[in-house]
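lol ok so funny story. i was supposed to be doing the assay writeup but got distracted and ended up predicting the structure for this chain instead. priorities right. anyway since i did it might as well share w the group, maybe its usefull for someone
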Amino acid sequence: MPSQSLPIRRFHLQGETAAIAAGIAAGATGSALTVLFAAPDHDLRALGAALHAAGAAHVVGATASRVLGAGGITPRGVSGFHLPTGRFAAADTVIEDAATIPLPEIRSHLHRLQADLDARAAQLEHRFALLLVDAEARCEERLTAVLGMELNGVPLVGGSAGDLYFNPLGHPPGSTRLLHDGRALRGAALLCLVASASPLVAYCHNHYVTGEHRAVITAADPTRRLVREMDGYPALEVYSRLCGFRRAPRASREFAPFPLMIRIGGQYYARGMQRIYPDGALEFACALEPGLVVALARPGDMVAMLGDMFAKLHSTIGTPELVIGFDCAARTAFMEQRGLTEPITRLMQAHAVSGFATLGEQFNSIHANNSFSCIGIGAKA
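and the output, tada:
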């Protein structure tokens, strides 16, 4: 069988860590890159050690509160995929200390990957970048801004790893969120550059409808993702008024259905709020800078709008063989609260989605949230 005809192999495994590692290692034979997403019932250190013992190579991964795969959307097991050598080639690197690494070093990481891939995969026409980030490093804005610009049109997608959304007490001391060739990491990012013989398309989708209500950020601390004032008044006061609340809520979850939207390049991106401070300042999942105009949004039909995105994807590349998907944990919570898990699961399974519930989504040069960032890979050439 010519190597260009080999299929992408997806997996969604449950059970003991050693058995899962053996199953992944067996499928990784002949793989240019294996990507896995582990639910909280699997420790990445133990999984990495088991994969190393099983002889698995070229494996990267992340942990999250929910994994997406052939087994559905679930808080258990390990999902992922193998990209076969011949149809794909990949180069990957660890960005240590992602929150403090100088920008020239980030560029150097990417340039080394580009040179490596150019030397081995010049015949593969299509390319994309995959970025997995430890959410606790809180460095996604600077990473995506630099990488997106340097990639010069090559699509970048990715997700921020962690379980803090459904586990507000935090991770156990010393726990890790990323995996690279058997080594569990924290405070880092993983960058993969992939060349493909199959066509690709990338999207950053959300299910919100932007309304007419607007406000201007007038005081903020972007490095801490804090907004102190909007329109010259305490941020909590203005945000509550935009949402139509008679009095300011005390819990951030009350604002979850009403993210603020910013417009970049003709498209709106969501900014969800995570925490209310006693002085009325608000902490968001992404940085907001003074001078930005934000618009209030409300949820639309989540199922129908996701279906429309998949229809657009299908019309562009045909039936996808794989969709690598990074779905915000806030969307997962909304789905579960509204009883939409079954129809959303059917859509994702029908379109071969493999991914995880994220604490932030990366798309080209933008760090987004409350979104589904994905890349679709068409059927084999």
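The longest strand covers residues 208-221. Residues 3-204+304-378 form one domain.
back to the writeup now i swear
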